[in-house]
Specification:
- 2 copies of one chain form a homodimer.
- By secondary structure, chain A is mainly alpha-helical.
- Chain A has one domain: Arc Repressor Mutant, subunit A, CATH 1.10.10.10.
- Chain A has 6 helices and 3 strands; from the N terminus they run ααβααββαα.
- Chain A has a 3-stranded antiparallel beta sheet with strand order 1-3-2.
- The first copy, chain A, is globular and about 50 Å long.
- The interface between A and B is large, with 67 and 68 residues.
- Chain A binds a DNA duplex (30 and 30 nucleotides) through helix 4 and strand 3.
DNA sequence: GTGATATGGTACGATTTCGTACTTTCTATA
DNA sequence: TATAGAAAGTACGAAATCGTACCATATCAC
């Protein structure tokens, strides 16, 4: 097989960027007013992996600067969707816990997305999506690990990483 | 084949969102100071599809509000990477043209990304990427068209769409 | 043609994102 | 233990994103 041209890789990431933009806009349309995708993503993360996570760990998981995560958490606290408490095992860090309201909002958002997924299932061959999932997962894992490798240009304080 | 659970679709978009985040960070590390991904994306768009595009058309292509595109273009103008001129066929609109410097910056950025793509080719089975490309392309096309369909929640002034 | 409506773009303010600098706490090494 | 360095979080300011309101121009109905 001939080596693919760089433009081909580029197209893959370009398509991914467009899909991310479209799906994010759709998600945000299903969220309560004042909540945007990063807020929901944090709620979802805390439910899927369990709450009581440190702020810094979530910043790493989402590959955002810790200052950005501080702001995101602050908004979630203002909406009473999470609570922040000190980490008893490390005086520097704080742990983030879901409130009942936070769980409910996440649950409702997923329920409100159901019609969109159903429409997708009607209009798109979902078998192809499932085929692509392992590739996407492995690509994400590769990029995540590669980020920690030597050749990555480290940018300020947003470094380090781990699987989401 | 059993119908996939919504969580499976969700995972696909979640992986895509993470990949977008990681690849965007990498791209921005290769751009000149002061330029971020949206700036490059506009340059790339103008080269791939030809310049002299209307601002509103680019906003639609990227699914961003026209106010966001106005700002992006303003930065590109400040960097002398594009020029904005009136549309002789429509007194309301403006057309965006690349400068030589704009073409050069885009060309250089792609050249600077080459080592990253080569590293990717060494560490990841690129055949799998190429297999996924048609699915991603079709999914993007579907979502783009679906956005214009009835069931989409229209959001403010960022409406309408067309292929990038 | 004239008026009503739609469209392209901008002004403005609110929110988000993020880099830098700093404080506090932990860890490692002597 | 003492102390230097690393790590977690925040304060702050700059830039980006985006919604609302508004102006100028175009299009449509009559």
């Amino acid at each position: 097989m001939p080596k693919p041209a760089p433009a081909t890789y580029f197209e893959v990431f370009n398509e991914i960027a467009i899909i991310e933009q479209l799906s994010r806009t759709l998600l945000e349309a299903r969220l309560p007013d004042g909540l945007i995708a990063p807020h929901f993503t944090v709620l979802n993360h805390l439910i899927r992996l369990g709450d009581g996570r440190a702020l810094i760990d979530m910043a790493r998981a989402f590959q955002v600067p810790k200052t950005s995560m501080t702001h995101t958490i602050k908004v979630l606290v203002a909406h009473e969707l999470v609570e922040v408490r000190p980490n008893p095992e490390d005086g520097r860090s704080k742990l983030v816990w879901l409130t009942d309201k936070g769980r409910a909002v996440r649950h409702q958002a997923i329920a409100d997305l159901a019609p969109d997924f159903e429409r997708l299932a009607r209009g798109f061959d979902t078998a192809r999506l499932l085929e692509a999932l392992p590739v996407l997962r492995d690509l994400r894992i590769y990029l995540d690990e590669d980020r920690n490798s030597a050749e990555w240009p480290q940018s300020g304080t947003s470094n380090a990483a781990s699987a989401r």
